[in-house]
Amino acid sequence: MDSDTVIAAVSIFTAGITIAIGSVGPALGEGRALAQALSAIAQQPDEASTITRTLFVGLAMVESTAIYCFVISMILIFANPFWNHFLQATGS
């Protein structure tokens, strides 16, 4: 196995791990936040608008983590700086 194959395999594996962890973590966090918000609304229906607004802001912040992981995995696959460095070092 040559160096090209190793760098490509490690990049693809790392991108897969990144998107796997980056999608499972925010999904669990969003589910927990939604369950807590519904519980809070059930206990205090008069504060539903405030709880809902805060929930949406929190969900947006949690979702941004998943988007960051997606961007990192796309960079690892399509614009890997190590790949470009390796190609320049070998003269290819």
Describe this structure in words.
With 92 residues, the chain is mainly α. Helix content is 89%, strand content 0%. Helix 1 packs antiparallel against helix 2 (48-78). It starts with a helix and ends with a helix.
Helix content: over 70%
**How much strand?**
under 5%
End-to-end distance: 18 Å
> Count of DSSP E strands?
0
Radius of gyration: 20 Å
Name the poorly predicted regions: none
**SS-based class:** mainly alpha
Mean pLDDT: 90
User: Largest sheet at a glance?
Assistant: none
- Helical region count? 3
| Element pattern in H and E | HHH
Give the topology.
Blueprint (H helix, E strand, L loop, with lengths): L2 H41 L4 H31 L2 H10 L2
Helix pairs in contact: 1-2
Write a brief structural summary.
The protein has three helices and no strands.
Name some characteristics of this structure.
3 helices; single chain; 89% helix; 92 residues
